Amino acid sequence: MRIRGIVYDTGVELLPGRPSRPDFDPDQVRADLRGIATELHATAVRLVGENLDRLRLAAEAAAEAGLAVWLSPALPDATSAAARLQLGSCADIGERLRARGAEVVLVAGWESTLFLRGIVSGATTTDRMATMTSPRRLLWSTVRHGPFPWALNRHLRRAAATARSRFQGPVAYAALGFERVDWRPFDLVGVDHYRSGESPEAWAAAIGRWRRPGKPVVLTELGCATYAGAEARGALAWTVVDRDADPPRLREPVVRDEGAQAEEIGRLLDAADAAGVAGAFVHTYASFSYPHRPEPELDLDTAGYGLVAVLPDGSVRRKAAFDAVARRFAAG
Question: pLDDT digit string (tens) for 128-182?
Fold first, then answer.
């Protein structure tokens, strides 16, 4: 794969009142990104975040480390218009960085059906997930907003136009697997692709349906949480955390298994490479709001997707998955 990438979180509030990265130390960010380049042997980093100052700092640090920068602004629960305003400002950041010689891709949206308002009914991501799994609610949403593929592609056409009006580099979108995207406005096909119970062969075969002439396919996310059986839950493995408890804890007696996480991520990277994708981004460098604690029921990192475990004092330690990814990325 030409693009060997890592997702890096600069801070997103996907659930109200629950920021993914409450603390942001610029020196730590720079050190993390140097490590992603030199120790994980990545060639690219996908920077996800809401705060433009954080995204700018991380993008500059990534470029200094020699990484291709995939700028992926996020504004959960925003309207399409608000998301485009943020995207335009992020496009300016990307264009200034590109003009200085950095390789930059602008990701003009991220799983918009669930993360933005107005494509399907629901005030929050949780509400919109409920809409997508309820035929009655989805019917009402269709009456109100139109068929969700139509509403999604209307938003994406406008987002791509906003991006191109202020950014001269490649433009992508990070899609959910079920989103029926019109890829004509984009230079690359990007899909967040987790395994959720199907065989690795079936997972790899699904990549074929996203191929479009002249548009490289990049897996903008793949990964696995850190417990036995997490590969069967894919992108929803984090839901074993009970955030309403004080302190937050695991709601199920899952068994921490760093080896299983490493094995699954390695298996997915090998399958993606064999499928001929242009690149893949492993989700994620660190799950900053999932601290690793010695008490099993309080060890939120068990439900985290990070290649490093974040300790309560903010320091990190490598997990087995870190080494599994580094070996594959070093091999090219």
Answer: 989 998 988 888 888 888 888 999 999 999 999 999 999 999 999 999 999 999 9
Q: In terms of Cα–Cα distance, which of 229, 253, 234, 231 is closest to 242?
A: 253
Count other Cβ atoms within 10 Å, centred on residue 187: 17
3-state secondary structure of 144: helix
Q: Is the peptide bond before 284 cis (omega within 30 degrees of 0)?
A: yes
**What angle (nearest 5°) sits at the alpha carbon of residue 98, between those of residues 95 and 103?**
130
Structure tokens at 164: 């191109």
8 A C-beta contact, residue 26 and residue 50: no
Report the predicted TM-score, pTM, of the whole model to 2 decimal places. 0.96
Q: How many CA atoms lie within 13 A of 254 on its CB side?
A: 30
Count of structural domains within the chain: 1
CB of 172 within 8 A of CB of 186?
A: yes
Question: What are the residues facing 30 on neighbouring strands?
Answer: none
C-alpha distances in angstroms, 78 versus 51, 114, 119, 125?
Answer: 14, 11, 11, 10
Both tokens of residue 203?
């997972």
Sign of dihedral through CA atoms 41, 225, 189, 8? negative
Which spans in the chain are helix H? Answer: 26-38, 52-64, 80-99, 112-115, 125-132, 135-145, 148-166, 200-206, 258-275, 320-330
pLDDT tens digits, one per residue of 17-46: 889 999 999 999 999 999 999 999 999 999
CATH number of the domain that 282 lies in?
3.20.20.80
**3 state DSSP class of 319:** coil
| Domain, as residue range, for 12 | 3-330
